[in-house]
Design goal:
Shape: globular
Structural class: mainly alpha
Number of helices: 6
Distance between the termini: 26 Å
Order of helices and strands: HEHHEHEEHH
Strand content: 5-15%
Strand order of the largest sheet: 1-2
DNA sequence: GAGGTGACGACCC
DNA sequence: TGGGTCGCCACCT
């Protein structure tokens, strides 16, 4: 929104993709990085998620996990845990890891290309 | 202005 | 097949 004017275009692209993640689905940092044209910038995507708490607190960052479906950023969440938010959307989480990850995985490139 | 850090990913041994 | 190491890109101190 208006507060996003100070964010770099790269971050806006990341937030845009994250905002497109449908409820009950998740994606990975690498998938987002690839979707924005920087497949090697997966770490930047993770950093953008941490930054999103300040610019886009409503951003569904909890739907973004690492390549293996592990809640890498769970420790960075405040208040409700990442797992609680995911389970509220019907996503099963066990030991900080998404159950049946490939079934709930959402590929942004597939949606954007389609 | 330079160095270190980080919610990752892929490659090498 | 599994574990360990290096690389990337942007922000913070």
């Amino acid at each position: 929104m208006d507060q996003q004017k100070d964010i770099s275009p790269l971050y806006l692209a990341i937030y845009d993709v994250v905002g497109l993640i449908p409820i009950g689905r998740v994606t990975s940092y690498g998938a987002i990085a690839k979707a924005i044209g920087s497949p090697r910038s997966a770490r930047v995507v993770g950093y953008a998620m941490n930054y999103s708490h300040k610019y886009c607190p409503e951003l569904p960052a909890h739907r973004v996990v690492n390549r293996v479906g592990l809640l890498s950023g769970k420790n960075h969440f405040q208040g409700d845990s990442m797992q609680t938010l995911l389970e509220a959307e019907g996503i099963k989480v066990l030991e900080n890891q998404i159950v049946d990850f490939e079934s709930v995985f959402w590929d942004p490139m597939t949606e954007l290309a389609d």
